[in-house]
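Below is a filled-in request sheet from our internal design queue. Each sheet records the structural input a requester submitted and the sequence that came back. We keep these sheets so that new team members can see what a complete request looks like end to end.

REQUESTER: design group, bay 2
PRIORITY: normal
MODE: inverse folding
CHAIN LENGTH: 326
BACKBONE (tokenized):
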């Protein structure tokens, strides 16, 4: 019987932009049986987008204002514009210092200035990541006194949902304006499925997962949290009957796999015809011959334009490999 391979999980650096941006990370999982790349990738992506919690404003209390469409003469912005600006707040949370079921108050008390997120007074356990966010521009001799109500939750909540939440939790407080809330700390999640060893009788898949956050949580924590959520759900099925699958899985030595990758033909990179022909014309026939040189050496290869060069770099990094240092 053909056994399952225990997959290898890696974090890779995809390009220079992501290398210098801690909010972006790329992970690979391989070698997966055919079909498992999509199965695992879709489950992870949906979990990351829908179920990773974060902190966000859900209501405000602005002194002198009873509802969001009321005129507010102390700033150049109206109340609706102020609310839209507050929705862009990025809040970092230390879960060890907060009660995740508690409602927290952030306060602004300022006069005659441009109010930014740096002017918000936050409780212990919270930190504003985008402190340069402009919230309002005050007119001369004006003042602003505002309470921002913040909760820790997941997903997206409409102002109607938050209005019900306010009634339930803060029913005795007047002049509270409900707003939409996006609690997710995720900017985007992409998945890509590719063949590890195309052309062989038993083809394995590689799942590439790219995660970008808003800057209030590291991508590594996001992926770990999503994996833990799915693990706890799947444990419910495992409780139906105890099954020992240790004999159905084998571990593959990563070094042997890497050696096999290096000896593989450049054709396994699935490059465009133009890129592949340019490499072959330069007497480069294996992946090892390709990466045994710095990236800058690609510029010296005849008929290899910027688009082809980027395609080659991308394909190599998708394998979890890198070019020789300059």
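RETURNED SEQUENCE:
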């Amino acid at each position: 019987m053909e056994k399952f391979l225990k997959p290898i999980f890696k974090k890779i650096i995809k390009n220079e932009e992501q290398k210098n941006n801690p909010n972006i990370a790329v992970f690979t999982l391989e070698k997966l049986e055919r079909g498992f790349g999509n199965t695992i990738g879709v489950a992870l992506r949906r979990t990351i987008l829908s179920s990773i919690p974060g902190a966000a404003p859900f209501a405000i209390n602005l002194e002198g204002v009873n509802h969001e469409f009321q005129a507010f003469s102390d700033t150049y912005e109206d109340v609706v514009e102020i609310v839209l600006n507050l929705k862009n707040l990025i809040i970092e949370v230390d879960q060890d210092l907060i009660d995740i079921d508690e409602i927290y108050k952030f306060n602004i008390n300022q006069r005659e200035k441009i109010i930014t997120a740096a002017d918000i007074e936050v409780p212990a356990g919270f930190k504003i990541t985008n402190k340069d966010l402009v919230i309002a521009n005050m007119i001369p001799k004006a003042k602003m006194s505002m309470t921002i109500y913040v909760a820790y939750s997941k997903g997206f909540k409409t102002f109607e949902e938050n209005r019900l939440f306010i009634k339930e939790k803060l029913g005795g407080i007047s002049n509270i304006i409900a707003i939409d809330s996006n609690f997710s700390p995720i900017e985007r999640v992409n998945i890509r499925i590719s063949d590890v060893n195309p052309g062989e009788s038993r083809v394995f898949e590689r799942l590439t997962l790219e995660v970008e956050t808003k800057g209030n949580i590291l991508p590594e924590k996001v992926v770990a949290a999503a994996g833990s959520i799915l693990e706890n759900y799947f444990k419910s099925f495992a409780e139906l009957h105890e099954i020992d699958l240790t004999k159905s899985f084998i571990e593959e030595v990563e070094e042997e796999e890497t050696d096999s990758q290096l000896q593989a033909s450049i054709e396994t990179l699935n490059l465009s015809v133009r890129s592949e022909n340019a490499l072959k014309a330069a007497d480069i026939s294996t992946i090892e011959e390709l990466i045994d040189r710095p990236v800058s050496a690609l510029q010296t290869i005849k008929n290899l334009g910027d688009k082809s060069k980027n395609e080659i770099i991308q394909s190599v990094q998708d394998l979890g490999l890198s070019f020789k240092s300059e």
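SHEET NOTES:
- Residues 267 and 273 are 10 Å apart (CA to CA).
- The chain has a mean pLDDT of 86.
FILED BY: M.R.
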